[in-house]
């Protein structure tokens, strides 16, 4: 049977579990709002690069693409914590958390790259920047495909796990 102490511990553990997921959800919501501000700053940097450095739209499109990718990843990451909260423990959850962690790391790094000052952005290797955006998008696609089709099934078909 349960005792008042064990019932209290279970309730405390469940509350802490809920708070963990809720705080991550809220954190990504704040980060998404910050990414919207970053997009506005990046648009100003793009205009500056085009006006003062003579770059054309195709020379700076990688920055716009990176901004849109960060915003989309932040939106999805926010809701991954709702999904993870209800996901039962096991192989599916472990794989989900693995993909979630990598998407978070890549999104953070991409967001940090966008925060560089205009002069640094003018000197950045555009191909590497675009590749990082592409890799981040692949993590997003894998996570979403796994949620749609079943994580372990999807990744066994791709030979990933």
Tally of separate helices: 6
Mean pLDDT, rounded to whole units?
A: 91
Shape: elongated
Multimeric state of these chains? single chain
Largest sheet report: none
Query: Helix amount, in percent?
Result: over 70%
The helix-strand sequence is HHHHHH
Uncertain spans: none
End-to-end separation in angstroms reads: 41 Å
* Rg computed from alpha carbons, rounded to a whole number of angstroms: 20 Å
Strand fraction equals under 5%
Query: Which class best fits the helix and strand makeup?
Result: mainly alpha
Number of strands: 0
Please render the helix and strand layout as text.
Elements: H1 4-52, H2 57-86, H3 91-114, H4 118-123, H5 126-149, H6 151-157
Helix pairs in contact: 1-2, 2-3, 2-5, 3-5, 5-6
What would your notes on this structure say?
With about 160 residues, this protein is mostly helical. Helix content is about 85%, strand content about 0%. It is built from six helices and no strands. It has helices at about 5-50, 55-85, 90-115, 120-125, 125-150, 150-155. The chain starts with a helix and ends with a helix. About 20% of the residues are buried. The mean pLDDT is about 90.
